Amino acid sequence: AAQGFALIRTHACALAPGDVRVVSGKTREFQGPPAMPFVPGGDVSGVVAAVADGEPRLRMGDAVVARFNGSPRGGLAEYTVVKTALTTIKPNGVDFCHAAAIASSGVAALVLAKMLNHGDRVLILGGSGGVGSDLVQLARRFGASFVAATSSDVQLVRRLGADDAVDYREHNVWELERYKREPFDVVIDLVGGGWHSARRCSASSPGILKCGRDGGRFWTLTPDTAWFEMHSIADAIRVFLAPALWRRVYTFFNRSIPRYQFVLALPEGHESRAELLALIESRALDVTLDPAGPFPFTTAGVRAAFDLQASRHARGKAVVSLLS
Ligand SMILES: NC(=O)c1ccc[n+]([C@@H]2O[C@H](COP(=O)([O-])OP(=O)(O)OC[C@H]3O[C@@H](n4cnc5c(N)ncnc54)[C@H](OP(=O)(O)O)[C@@H]3O)[C@@H](O)[C@H]2O)c1
């Protein structure tokens, strides 16, 4: 394998919204696919089959988990090339499917949880998805005093440890009196578009989220729509950069509305995955795999996994198992 890379025999590949975006071709100029034929998939676990000489952390035969390099590609194959800097040794006590499931979603959840202040009251929009199902648990672990989440599966969110759960099909979470009486310090949007409601929470008409002056923060991992087209720099500015920068600057100065932050939650390095794997092994983190999976590594199996991921209603992670 080339310096900085390892070849792994893939055992599991977890899908994420980014995989659906890449396969759709809607962000092709930024994320690929570069050409056909194309192998999708980016979050993988498996066993090292080859590694460059002088690589200090990895040896042939090591069980590992790795996330994509640049954009998700290459993971839905019997062998895949991973960047060693993004590869972490998998402990024996964590199976390959659960390990693949945290490769990027778990890391994003961990990054968000570590941004919390001790005692924060937190609302997660999208608590049963790939990131949310980990974040509900990690938010509490990293200091939140109260965690609520929206979901169409309130039982799952409660089972994961949320103090309260709101079925967004039945209730408008932004109008709930119990939250207006005791507003949140932080709203974390994993769905997209929540800012338009959050910005109406202001010092003059208190809502469910505190205003910036009182420490209210709105964090999002997504632009206003979860699915978007981006083919040019102008598109990137319109979809991502302009709203994120303008809102950040505007809410920095205007403290009568919550403070906005678009979070890029995929750091380089392998440490976050190691931390998550240790939490899973010690049973402090219960990673959710959608019950329809793990999907078999067949055309029908991979299509079903993609359909589930594209539906935006996966319970936790959609995972393909390459172990027969
Ligand atoms: N910025 C970064 O570094 C970074 C890193 C990782 C992920 N992300 C992004 O973060 C977002 C979340 O990722 P994910 O893996 O958690 O996605 P996911 O597994 O597809 O979860 C989507 C969530 O949205 C909810 N949802 C779907 N339709 C809804 C609706 N109409 N109203 C309210 N809620 C709805 C779902 O809840 P129900 O199933 O209950 O309906 C589910 O909880 C994605 O946009 C992803 O691209 C960004």
UniProtKB/TrEMBL annotation:
Superkingdom per UniProt: Eukaryota
Pfam families named among the record's database cross-references: ADH_N, ADH_zinc_N_2
Domain Enoyl reductase (ER): 1-320
Gene Ontology molecular functions: oxidoreductase activity; zinc ion binding
InterPro entries per the UniProt record, alphabetical: ADH-like_N (IPR013154), ER (IPR020843), GroES-like_sf (IPR011032), Lipid_raft_assoc_Zn_ADH (IPR052585), NAD(P)-bd_dom_sf (IPR036291), Quin_OxRdtase/zeta-crystal_CS (IPR002364)
PROSITE patterns, alphabetized: QOR_ZETA_CRYSTAL (PS01162)
Name by which UniProt lists this protein: Enoyl reductase (ER) domain-containing protein
